[in-house]
Design brief:
Blueprint lengths: L2 E9 L5 E8 L4 E7 L2 H16 L7 H12 L7 H21 L3 H4 L7 E7 L2 E2 L2 E2 H7 L1 H10 L4 E4 L3 H4 L9 H6 L2 H10 L4 E5 L6 H11 L6 E3 L7 H10 L4 E3 L5 H10 L5 E2 L3 H4 L1 H14 L12 H13 L6 E3 L1 H4 L5 H4 E2 L4 E2 L2 E3 L9 E2 L1 H5 L3 E6 L14 E5 L5 E5 L2
Helix pairs in contact: 1-2, 1-3, 2-3, 3-14, 5-6, 6-9, 12-14, 14-15
Bound molecules: magnesium ion.
Length: about 400
């Protein structure tokens, strides 16, 4: 079996999204996704990775991941290359599931559960204005989510306070005002709603400690990225200073960046973003590394529907999967997932259900390909074994005189 064609698909309506389809000579079509910088991602896929993969066995996922990573690591691996690898990797797992007629979680070792608790990130789309409502009256959103069976929510309510000084200055009065959304939630629904705060990496360490300590009175579900994950020791300090667990985070790319945070105890909750950090292959390994440190895994979302499907397979499989991020404004009846994929994800009683069917369990709707704002790029030419320098082009062999020598590969 061979990979015959790799496509990238963009829609003007969703300028951050890249969908990837990988075709095989067996008729399978694997689907992947990543988010942000779609032109750079398409460049990486068609210029660098497609020539490496066309003509190759789609089932050699581990080998392909390492070949792509080693190529990308010629210049530091994170960025558009890592996002491209992530999208390709999901599509290859989808193909493996279709060939074996199994959901991906069964290929990862089977299911530990058939559903995972989900939390809502208060984002807005169409009629659902959870972000604006959260900023005005978080208690109202908490009540509305509880009505939907969802008892955990997250948003970034410290961002407006960080903007003027890039997180350097925070007055005592503003610190108090920053607590207002938590007071609103507790007044409205008591402790029925768990709340996580996402700091979006906007604070310096000193202010992060002040914010974390001030919020500790409310029993926060976690504190995520109060500081950027660029300094392991600062996260160790933060974790020691505040009571809420420190969550790290969607910006860490690959097991190699997570390793430092796990080894130092700086990540009390591990939040890989599957479509950035290296796909299903890498997220499974990060989850296992976290398991060895007794750290729960809570995959990151607020992006596209294929990510949620891919994360769902990790969440069903990984023993230490804890909660899954989803956005009701996106997946709900007036959201946009319904217009892109079929079937949609299913959230029931605050839980994301296991995908059904072989592979990923969803595909792009045929309507997507008829849209006037759809742009597709396609690659179907192999680049050869020596393409791009990830192998030397030479080999060591034993010559006719019985001596070891080097020659150019034929
Ligand atoms: Mg975040």
């Amino acid at each position: 079996m061979k990979i015959t064609r790799i496509e990238t698909i963009h829609l003007d309506e969703f300028p951050a999204a890249t969908w990837v389809q990988i075709h095989t000579d067996g008729g399978q079509v694997g689907l992947g996704e990543t988010w942000f910088g779609p032109r750079a991602v398409s460049g990486a896929i068609h210029e660098i990775f497609s020539p490496m993969l066309i003509g190759k066995d789609p089932l050699a996922i581990e080998r392909h991941w390492r070949d792509m990573f080693d190529m990308a690591n010629a210049f530091g691996f994170a960025g558009a290359e890592a996002r491209a690898i992530s999208a390709i990797d999901i599509a290859l797992w989808d193909i493996a599931g279709q060939i074996s007629q199994q959901p991906i979680y069964n290929l990862l070792g089977g299911a530990c559960r058939d559903r995972i608790p989900t939390y809502n990130t208060n984002a807005s789309y169409g009629e659902v204005r959870d972000l604006e409502l959260s900023m005005e009256d978080a208690g109202t959103v908490a009540k509305s989510l509880l009505d939907d069976g969802i008892s955990i929510m997250k948003w970034a309510f410290t961002d407006p306070f960080a903007d003027p000084s890039r997180g350097m200055f925070l007055s005592d009065n503003d610190l108090d005002l920053m607590m207002e959304p938590m007071r609103q939630v507790r007044n409205a629904v008591g402790k029925d709603m768990a709340v996580a705060n996402d700091g979006h990496g906007r604070w310096n360490l000193q202010n992060a400690i002040r914010i974390g300590k001030a919020m500790d009175q409310f029993g926060m579900f976690w504190q995520e990225e109060l500081i950027q994950p660029t300094n392991v020791q600062n996260h160790v300090t933060l974790a020691h200073e505040i009571e809420a667990p420190v969550c790290v985070s969607e910006r860490l790319i690959s097991k190699f960046q997570f390793r430092e945070y796990l080894r130092e105890g700086a990540a009390e909750i591990v939040m890989p973003d599957l479509i950035w950090t290296g796909g299903i292959t890498e997220t499974k390994k990060i989850a296992t590394m976290a398991e060895a440190e007794d750290a729960p895994v809570a995959p990151h979302d607020t992006t596209g529907p294929v990510n949620v499907f891919a994360c769902a397979h990790i969440c069903m499989n990984a023993p230490n999967a804890w909660v899954m991020e989803t956005v009701r404004a996106f997946y709900g009846p007036t959201g946009w997932y319904n217009r892109i994929i079929e079937p949609n994800i299913i959230v029931e009683d605050g839980h994301l259900l296991a995908p059904e069917g072989p592979g990923l369990g969803t595909k792009l709707k045929s309507d997507v390909f008829d849209r006037s704002d759809m742009h597709m790029e396609s690659s179907d030419e192999p680049g050869g074994d020596h393409w791009g320098g990830f192998t030397s082009g030479y080999e060591v062999y034993t010559n006719d005189d019985g001596q070891r020598a080097i020659r150019k590969r034929s």
